[in-house]
From TrEMBL:
PANTHER family: PROTEIN TOLB, PROTEIN TOLB HOMOLOG. Keywords: Cell cycle, Cell division, Periplasm, Signal. This is Tol-Pal system protein TolB. The gene is tolB. It comes from Massilia polaris. InterPro entries: 6-blade_b-propeller_TolB-like, Tol-Pal_TolB, TolB_N, WD40.
Length: 420
């Protein structure tokens, strides 16, 4: 049985107090050809602070990829399985498991994924989380199921960063949450605006822009120690930080030389270097998946369009040609898909296959897109009902989710990386 260690997570997110309101997830739409899967109640899961089977079901349903069948019974990882019975109920696979409380207060969580078609075991996994990481253990099981059934790594155990703002109260919070909106923690709180959070590739830090010095300044918040530091505070505006894939540098937008251009800077704030050189405004830089190129927004052609250039700077080539207003480029982790926001009868989220140039419109009333680390979903900010909330759409446009909260406006989402 494969075992997962929680040594790394024992040092994860040391931030401020938990936020009062969790995010509520609403699901709409499903993928074509959903995979039918039965999830049984885990034996003795009531001893843990989180109900494993319920979290796993919610994750799989939220993906839109699975048709979840409630097993209606308790099945442990050692229970005998009647494969024919489950196959007759329409399940291609069955999830079973058990939870045992250990003497040190941790839990022994075991699970199996069973193939009803081949009457065989597809996967088995064992974990020993502390109570704090019980939900994470369930997300990791859902990730394993997603990967074994689809061939793509699951992203349920990842985290998101976003800004929760209440302008009338001058309350701005950079918050961290699980990908399902649970476990909200406040990383930074200010009475001045916070924008543009960006995760480091190792998931231990978030770069962001704060206006607490009465101008935009780029900070890096360490989520393990709780410490933070100013990384860029040049004359004028300092904005739009984006981490290089190896975590050694940030691409940023600075107006230090009179008009906004793209620069790179070492993660410790040294080695500032100008990359773009135009008479227009060059901003919103984003590294390509291989770190060799930088995508950015520029109005050098008369209106905002998306360009790309070498990560070392130099000549840039235009990427978007449809529509007169295209901004906020984001590149998927496999480097194959570009997402951005285009103003065509309102702001809409688009995705492009970079090899073919083919575009697809994914969502209306969308800003600030961010890819999931497996490249299968895009989170974005959207307005509706008098407030701004977060939404998620699959890259094929079929699956949609909405994450809302009862208080404040949530925006500026950034989906964190896979945890090592």
């Amino acid at each position: 049985m494969k075992k997962i260690s929680y040594l790394f997570f024992s040092a994860a997110v040391v931030v401020g107090a938990s936020a009062n309101a969790q995010l509520k997830v609403e699901i709409a739409g499903v993928s074509s050809g959903q995979i039918p899967i039965a999830v049984a109640t885990f034996a003795d899961e009531g001893v843990a602070p989180a109900q494993m089977s319920a979290i796993i079901k919610a994750d799989l349903e939220r993906s839109g990829v699975f048709k979840v069948i409630d097993a209606g019974t308790v099945l442990s990882d050692t229970s005998p399985i009647d494969y024919g019975q489950w196959k007759s109920r329409g399940a291609d696979a069955v999830v079973v498991g058990s939870v045992q409380k250990l003497a040190n207060g941790s839990f022994n969580v075991r699970y199996k994924l069973l193939d009803t078609i081949k009457s065989s075991e597809l996967s088995t996994l064992g974990q020993t989380p502390t109570p704090r990481y019980a939900r994470l253990a369930a997300h990791k099981i859902a990730d394993d199921i997603y990967e074994k059934m689809t061939g793509t790594r699951g992203a349920f155990a990842t985290r998101i960063a976003y800004v929760n703002e209440n302008r009338s109260a001058k309350d701005y919070r950079l918050e961290i949450a699980d990908a399902d909106g649970e476990g909200v923690q406040v990383a930074v709180r200010s009475n001045e605006p916070i924008i543009s959070p960006s995760w480091s590739p190792d998931g231990t830090k978030v770069a962001y822009v704060s206006f607490e010095k009465r101008k935009p300044v780029i900070y890096v918040q360490n989520l393990v120690t709780g410490g933070r530091k100013i990384v860029v505070n040049e004359k004028g505006s300092n904005s739009a930080p984006s981490w290089s894939p190896d975590g050694s540098k940030l691409a940023v937008s600075l107006s230090k030389d009179g008009h906004t251009q793209v620069y790179s800077v070492n993660a410790d704030g040294g080695g500032l270097r100008r990359l773009s050189n135009s008479n227009g405004i060059d901003t919103e830089p984003q590294w390509s998946a291989d770190g060799q190129q930088i995508y950015f927004t520029s109005d050098r052609s008369g209106g905002p369009q998306i360009y790309r250039m070498s990560a070392n700077g130099g000549a840039a080539s235009r990427v978007t040609f449809n529509g007169s207003y295209n901004i906020s480029p984001r590149v998927s982790s496999d480097g194959k898909t570009l997402a951005w926001v285009s103003q065509r009868n309102g702001f809409s989220l688009y995705a492009m296959d970079l090899a073919s140039g083919q575009e697809i419109r994914l969502a209306e009333s969308a800003t600030e897109p961010s890819f999931s680390p497996n490249g299968k979903y895009i989170m974005y900010a959207t307005k509706g009902g008098g407030r701004t909330s977060l939404a998620v759409v699959s890259v094929d446009g079929r699956v949609k989710q909405r994450l809302t909260t009862q208080a404040g406006n949530i925006r500026e989402p950034n989906w964190g990386p896979f945890m090592k």
